[in-house]
């Protein structure tokens, strides 16, 4: 690897104008492409103290052997040139959102004499009406299967249609009334066209008329005692309702928009996009990419440029290929028309984070579409609610991606081996425990302890703690809290090493939150850990090590995991260990730390909610914590307690007339005095 100082440009030689730069390796291959409003300011950041760079960036500058740049006239031109070079050179250190799939569509060949409905992938053609895209092929086929009960349109290919036309008998779909069988003259072309028009109208969103007609016919058939026909119409109505549920209107006024959200952690980012066409969600796509040091606004900007530029370019190439194919066949009925930019780049693009260079990105998107594009963050109403749904999907996609990596046996084995090698352990850490602290400005301080065995959570051994010593003065002291929890966990460590697992306990199934708080009773951990993780940096891990020294624990490896760059801190070491960002071991450690954080947050919310429920009863003379809790439990809430009479309060177990009067007067000051004669 080259030293960045060997190819650093001389001071003052880098221009201050906007431009695009390329880093090349020793073989002259482009490994990174970037843009900047000021080339000098941006490139100078790469040649500062390399220890302050993001690990991915640090690896890039050491892999590179030279840097070059091109000055452009505007920031919009810089965006375009950056995209062009990324497509051309495919640099290994650039984040790329690859999406070379063609998404399934429901097509209706309205240009034919006898139109047909069919599943389709590929470029759009003239004379065909398209609905979609759908996220899955089965969704197209299920929609078509449901709707042909009500709209028995032709779905067969040209060859099948011609064969049955010669045979003089319909196919199976014709016999079961899922096709009107125009091939044998059961309906005229004009009548079949009316069925197709109803199908297209329904798919375009005009559903109320069909529902009302089917409901009316079903009720009439029931009145006429035609129960078989009424049952068939009932099933048809059920099929219609199922399709309507799949394509429910989410935005009014037939809005065409894309909604984009990002969920990220320190290592990766998940991007989700919902395509809304005609007010309905027509498709959903997602990507998970490696996270860089750039903020989410920059990640969003890169995604917008790459995704829509790729989409327009791919649509044009598909149209050209289809035109050449049609020309070779000599067929002009389905001649290809250029893709409508609005079908690829909608008028509205709603994002979770606005790009830093919003105006330039809007200009580029406008050029791609051919008309104005509105790029903004939704603030209220249905669009804001739908954006929250997209955000939840992005978070779930990231969570599922991480769980998939941890859940794979091969990946778990590789992860444990990575951890063993980087920490220099004699054997893989089959049992790992991790603790985390949660509080708000020193109040309701709690801690969690989660356990992973063989890379999987062992929820029967989870613990949660109320921290007392470290937060007694109402201030936050994470270091002292870590020391307290470590001491409480390992107080009986030597006895736990001799513990024999209880077979009944081993066979029991534990739900997510059914865990008990650790105390000094006879309940023990099943096994001692091989590795103990504290959430934090060097101060936290040193505090835990002092407890280990105090208790004489030498057979448990201790580390700290810091959130900033996922650094691994070892007691007594001045520098952290850095695992490669693609390491399976780093993903497992992060998963364990995130689970401890989730469990601590859940317990903290429970404690805070419990405290807030009874806070209005603070200061009642003679009312302690036990009776206060009993009072709220009896009435169900403080609000219902306020509505209770003095006599009803006095009926609570343990409450006499004097204490009941004190509670009533505290909640209703001056009320009894005003009622006195």
How would you portray this structure in words?
Helix 13 (381-407) crosses helix 19 (584-613) and helix 15 (478-490) runs parallel beside helix 18. 45% of the residues lie in helices and 16% in strands. The relative contact order is 0.06. Mean pLDDT is 77; it is low at 331-336, 470-475 and 500-522. The strands form four sheets. Strands 12, 13, 14, 15, 16, 17 and 18 form a seven-stranded mixed beta sheet that branches. A hairpin with a 2-residue loop joins strand 13 and strand 14 (456-457). With 677 residues, the protein is of the alpha+beta class. It has five domains: 4-89, GIY-YIG endonuclease (3-Layer(aba) Sandwich); 105-205, no CATH class; 257-400, Nucleotidyltransferase, domain 5, CATH 3.30.420; 408-610, Nucleotidyltransferase, domain 5, CATH 3.30.420.340; 614-675, Orthogonal Bundle (DNA polymerase, domain 1). It has 24 helices and 18 strands.
Q: How many E-type strands?
A: 18
Structural class: alpha+beta
So what's the CATH class of the largest domain? Alpha Beta
Strand content: 15-25%
Question: What is the straight-line distance between the termini?
Answer: 94 Å
Q: Main beta sheet: strand number and arrangement?
A: 7 strands, mixed
Q: Are there runs of 5+ residues with pLDDT below 50, and where?
A: 331-336, 470-475, 500-522
Give the overall average pLDDT.
77
CATH homologous superfamily label of the largest domain: UvrC, RNAse H endonuclease domain
Radius of gyration: 33 Å
The number of domains is 5
Family: Belongs to the UvrC family.
Domain UVR: 208-243
Keywords: Cytoplasm, DNA damage, DNA excision, DNA repair, Excision nuclease, SOS response
Function: The UvrABC repair system catalyzes the recognition and processing of DNA lesions. UvrC both incises the 5' and 3' sides of the lesion. The N-terminal half is responsible for the 3' incision and the C-terminal half is responsible for the 5' incision.
């Amino acid at each position: 690897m080259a030293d960045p100082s060997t190819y650093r440009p001389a001071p003052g030689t880098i221009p201050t104008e906007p431009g695009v730069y390329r880093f090349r390796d020793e073989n002259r291959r482009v490994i990174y492409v970037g843009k900047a409003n000021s080339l000098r300011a941006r490139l100078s950041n790469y040649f500062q103290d390399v220890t302050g760079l993001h690990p991915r960036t640090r690896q890039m500058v050491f892999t590179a052997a030279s840097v070059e740049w091109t000055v452009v006239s505007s920031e919009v031109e810089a965006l375009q040139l950056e995209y062009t070079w990324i497509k051309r050179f495919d640099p290994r250190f650039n984040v790329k959102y690859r999406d070379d799939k063609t998404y399934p569509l429901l097509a209706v060949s309205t240009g034919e004499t006898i139109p047909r409905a069919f599943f389709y992938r590929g470029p759009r053609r003239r004379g065909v009406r398209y609905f979609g895209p759908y996220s899955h092929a089965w969704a197209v086929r299920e929609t078509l299967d449901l709707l042909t009960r009500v709209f028995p349109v032709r779905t067969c290919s040209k060859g099948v249609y011609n064969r049955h036309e010669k045979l003089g008998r319909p196919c199976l779909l014709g016999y079961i009334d899922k096709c009107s069988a125009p091939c044998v003259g059961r309906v005229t072309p004009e009548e079949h066209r009316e069925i197709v028009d109803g199908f297209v109208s329904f798919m375009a969103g005009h559903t109320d008329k069909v529902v009302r007609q089917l409901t009316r016919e079903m009720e009439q058939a029931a009145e006429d005692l035609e129960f078989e026909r009424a049952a068939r119409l009932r099933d048809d109505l059920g099929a219609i309702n199922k399709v309507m549920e799949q394509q429910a209107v989410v935005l009014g006024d037939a809005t065409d928009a894309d909604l984009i959200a990002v969920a990220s952690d320190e290592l990766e980012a998940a991007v989700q996009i919902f395509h809304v066409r005609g007010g309905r969600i027509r498709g959903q796509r997602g990507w998970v990419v490696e996270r860089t040091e750039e903020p989410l606004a920059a990640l969003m900007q890169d995604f917008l440029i790459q995704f829509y530029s790729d989409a327009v370019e791919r649509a044009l190439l598909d149209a050209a290929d289809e035109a050449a194919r049609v020309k070779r066949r000599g067929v002009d009925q389905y001649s290809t028309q250029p893709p409508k930019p609005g079908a690829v780049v909608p008028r509205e693009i709603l994002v979770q984070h606005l790009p830093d260079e919003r105006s330039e990105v809007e200009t580029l998107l406008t050029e791609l579409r051919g008309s104005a594009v509105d790029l903004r963050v939704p603030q209220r109403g249905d669009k804001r609610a739908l954006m929250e749904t997209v955000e939840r999907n992005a978070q779930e996609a990231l969570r599922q991606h991480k769980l998939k990596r941890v859940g794979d046996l091969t990946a778990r084995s590789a992860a444990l081996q990575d951890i063993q090698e980087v920490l220099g352990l004699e054997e893989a850490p089959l049992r790992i425990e991790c603790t985390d602290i949660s509080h708000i400005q020193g109040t309701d301080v709690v801690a969690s302890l989660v356990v992973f065995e063989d890379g999987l959570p062992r929820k029967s051994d989870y613990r949660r703690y109320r921290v007392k010593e470290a937060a007694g003065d109402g201030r936050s002291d994470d270091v002292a809290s870590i020391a307290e929890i470590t001491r409480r966990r390992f107080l009986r460590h030597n006895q736990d090493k001799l513990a024999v697992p209880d077979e009944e306990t081993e066979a029991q199934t534990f739900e997510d939150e059914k865990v008990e708080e650790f105390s000094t009773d006879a309940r023990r951990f099943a096994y001692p850990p091989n590795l103990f993780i504290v959430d934090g940096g060097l101060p936290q891990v040193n505090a835990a090590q002092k407890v280990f020294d105090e208790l004489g624990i030498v057979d448990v490896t201790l580390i700290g995991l810091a959130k900033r760059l996922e650094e691994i801190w070892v007691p007594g070491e001045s520098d952290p260990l850095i695992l490669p960002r693609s390491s399976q071991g780093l993903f497992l450690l992060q998963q364990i730390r995130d689970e401890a954080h989730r469990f601590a947050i859940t317990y903290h919310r429970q404690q805070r909610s419990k405290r807030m429920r009874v806070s209005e009863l603070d200061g009642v003379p003679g009312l302690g914590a036990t009776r206060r809790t009993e009072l709220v439990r009896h009435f169900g809430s403080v609000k219902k307690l306020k509505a209770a009479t003095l006599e009803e309060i006095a009926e609570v177990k343990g409450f006499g007339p004097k204490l009941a009067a004190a509670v009533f007067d505290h909640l209703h000051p001056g009320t009894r005095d005003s009622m006195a004669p």
